[in-house]
Design goal:
single chain; alpha+beta; FAD/NAD(P)-binding domain; D-Amino Acid Oxidase, Chain A, domain 2; ten-stranded mixed β-sheet; eight-stranded mixed β-sheet; 16 helices; about 25% strand; disordered C terminus; flavin adenine dinucleotide binding; sarcosine oxidase activity; flavoprotein
Length: about 550
């Protein structure tokens, strides 16, 4: 730099990029007592990047387990920041993940829920229709996963929240200041100097680069990682008149992600009155400085969305992501050693992680690898060097799922078989009416842990603990002693309950005195839509 360059005060941490990641980083750094500078090349809260608008989804359902752990921690930090600022940026709802039953990403989502004991339900198309009162229709061969943690974040409001909190803790904020150079100081103080296009020089002990789609232009080394910039489509569907309240975030309509082709996601009605937001994950390659602002929403969504006359409002959003769609959170290295931390590639599934990412970046910048050691299991996937000699980056483990039915199909242990034998004993030694009431626990537990004839190891252990230890044959016999018996028709296939997609255990009772068909009592859905009327049990 020329000697005439204007120099500012020296900071502990300089953050380049004032989107949600940079603003969160500035907040955490200032909160730690670090003298912090946040620099943005455009106006604060601009609409040219990936941190603007009125809605982003939050969810903890991920094929990759490390993202799930991050999302859980991030949700806590969102709530903590809300308590500090005094207003809400996060509206809660259920989360719905849907897709073909053999989709490996969706199966990995389910596997993660099982391994981490996450409360979830697996539904077939008919149960999904019933659960959401006809608002969501799935193809025959699709399933749905419903979890408790979902909702909508308000992006612009969130960025403003982090910036306000950063100022509260003493940070300095500068917008309309484009940084064109980052160099390591050659004097005894060390650290780095960043230079603006106007020639102003800012000096700091540490620098964090969170420039979104402009990271690779600012830091050439990162661009070797193969950043991809895409212009993705966002459509807003108008809800049919008189149904507006049914799709609002407070009416039980979920945030959602669809693992079909293309991958889409969306939110309940919140951003615009009476409209649902749907987005395509990914898009057309573009230059962030030369992008087109139009959209072709209808073509991009294909036949996945039934919106009759097309979207009411179409928008575009800038995506920046790596080839493996994992983040970059790492030291720049080279001559900078650990003085410069780089973060990027968050588009599509990163906004929700902002509170935690900001915290991790500050830990790395201020304390080095040791300070961020708590998150090593997560950030080991986000190294810059993973692309060296491997342009595709991280290899995903979804193929380890193998065939879904091989790894995740029904695996009846002796304990689960006992449950069905116990159920049979209840029916044989009582009336169907009384047995139905007594078996509510079995029905509820089974339906909550079973979907489309798939059971997991978690269900086996859950059954043993909750059901078998709570109900004994002797107890049941004593309760129903003296009640007239009832014959029941059974259907068996091999050694597992089977009825095809959408079937659940049902009862068909016959009163032994009248020898005619009695009113069926059902453990599952009422008969209809192709549902069977039999209680399926395994052969011994």
């Amino acid at each position: 730099m020329a000697n005439s360059s204007r120099k500012s005060d020296r900071f502990d941490v300089i953050v380049i990029g004032g989107g949600v990641m940079g603003s969160s980083t500035a907040y955490h750094a200032a909160k730690l007592g670090q003298k912090t500078l946040l620099i943005e090349q455009f106006d604060f809260l601009h609409h040219r990047g990936s941190s603007h608008g009125e809605s982003r989804t939050i969810r903890t359902t991920y094929p990759e387990p490390y993202y799930r752990r991050m999302a859980i921690e991030s949700e806590k930090l969102w709530i903590e920041a809300e308590s500090e600022i005094g207003y809400e940026v996060y509206s809660r709802s259920k989360q719905l993940d849907i897709g073909p039953k053999n989709n490996r990403s969706l199966m990995a989502v389910i596997e993660n829920c099982e391994k981490q004991s996450v409360n979830h339900r697996i539904l077939d198309r008919y149960q999904t229709d019933e659960h959401f009162s006809g608002r969501i229709e799935l193809p025959d061969d699709w399933i749905a996963v419903v979890t408790d943690v979902g909702g909508v974040l308000k992006p612009t409001k969130s960025v403003a929240m982090f910036q306000t909190l950063a100022i509260k803790y003493g940070a300095v904020l500068r917008d309309k200041t484009e940084i064109v150079d980052v160099v390591r100081n050659g004097d005894d103080r060390g650290g780095v100097s960043v230079t603006s296009r106007s020639g102003e020089v800012f000096s700091g002990k540490k620098c964090v680069v969170t420039a979104g789609a402009w990271v690779s232009k600012l830091v050439e080394k990162v661009s070797n990682g193969g950043y991809r910039f895409a212009d993705t489509a966002v459509g807003n569907i108008c809800i049919k008149e008189s149904h507006e309240v049914d799709f609002a975030i407070g009416a039980g309509f979920p945030s959602f992600a669809s693992y079909g082709e293309p991958v889409i996601y969306g939110t309940p009605a919140s951003e615009f009155p009476d409209m649902i937001k749907v987005c395509v994950h990914g898009g057309r390659d573009c230059d962030p400085d030369k992008r087109t602002w139009g959209t072709d929403s209808e073509d991009r969504f294909g036949d996945r969305v039934d919106w009759e006359d097309g979207p009411v409002i179409s928008q575009s959003c800038l995506y920046s992501m790596t080839p493996d769609e994992d983040y970059i959170i790492d030291f720049l290295g080279g001559g900078f050693n650990e003085d410069v931390v780089v973060a990027g590639g968050f588009s599509g599934h990163g906004f929700k992680m902002a509170p935690l990412v900001g915290k991790i970046l500050v830990d790395l910048a201020v304390g080095g690898k040791a300070a961020a050691g708590k998150y090593e299991e997560e950030i080991k996937h986000f190294k810059v060097g993973r692309f060296e000699g491997n342009p595709k980056g991280n290899k995903k483990g979804f193929e380890e799922q193998g065939e879904f039915k091989c790894k995740f199909a029904i695996r009846f242990s002796s304990e689960v078989s006992q449950v069905y034998n116990l159920t049979l004993d209840i029916i044989i030694n009582s009336s169907v009416e009384r047995a139905f009431s007594a078996m509510k626990l079995i029905k509820t537990s089974t339906q909550n842990k079973m979907g489309d004839q798939f059971l997991s190891d978690y269900f086996v252990s859950y059954t043993k603990k909750v059901i078998l230890e709570g109900i004994s044959n002797d107890t049941i016999m004593q309760i129903f002693k003296g009640i007239r018996p009832c014959r029941v028709q059974f259907s068996t296939v091999g050694n597992i309950p089977y009825g095809g997609s959408g079937w659940y255990p049902c009862l068909l009772g016959f009163d032994s005195r009248r020898e005619q068909e009695a009113t069926p009592q059902f453990m599952g859905r009422p008969s209809g839509r192709g549902y069977g009327r039999r209680f399926m049990v395994p052969r011994d």
